[in-house]
Amino acid sequence: MDRIKVKVMRKQGCEDLPLPQYMSEAASGMDLYAAVDESTPLERNEIKLIPTGIHIEVPKGYEAQVRPRSGLALKHGLTLVNTPGTIDSDYRGEIGIILCNLGKDRFTVERRMRIAQLVIQPVTRAELVEVERLEESPRGMGGFGHTGH
Fold this sequence. Notes:
Order of helices and strands: EEEEEEHEEEEE
Structural class: mainly beta
Strand order of the largest sheet: 2-3-11-6-8
Strand content: 35-45%
Distance between the termini: 34 Å
Number of strands: 11
């Protein structure tokens, strides 16, 4: 399994929080922890930016993706509005989680709670080439649901 080094820096006052970590040997995502100063309620259909207390330096040629945790999604209806969130290699600010409560009940975010996952992925950049016509395909111009599956 390939490994790359990603530098991480804790925000002052967040030394008590665990660094992102893989929770199993085969996990592709590292858990991110809430760095809220106090219990933070999230009402039904409410969106809040939840701090993580960390900054990262992703190597050039990679990105970090922030994804929801499946357990929180299933049990409480929590998701990320911009899933997956993208952290580019030149971003150095604190990682924030745009958390949304789609569940039936209020949810309370507590300090040290695992609220999202961080996945590091290689980036491929495309070069767009403008043309007068595109090659035909069996699907053609069919839109959403057009393949019948």
